[in-house]
DUF7848 domain-containing protein (Streptomyces kanamyceticus), 94 residues
Amino acid sequence: MSPRRLFRWDPFTTAQDPTVEPEYAALCVSGDEKACGAYSGVMGGALTVDDWMRQHLRDTGHRHFRRTFTDFAELFESRQANQFEAAQSGRAQS
């Protein structure tokens, strides 16, 4: 019996998509029997989430949070990855 599909291993590199900003959020998990559940909403930076957590601590005394960070990724074939890295380093220097 011949195989129906042929899978070929191609090395790929994963990189953060520079065209989309990462997203940050925090969820208050403080509470004895039930978590508080207060949610910061999606924010554009880690510092803004930290500020939200500090304000929530001041308002409620809650100290336990679940922080999340979400980004978008691109996959590049290895030969393209070198070109991508060169372009990224050129952007960082400009």
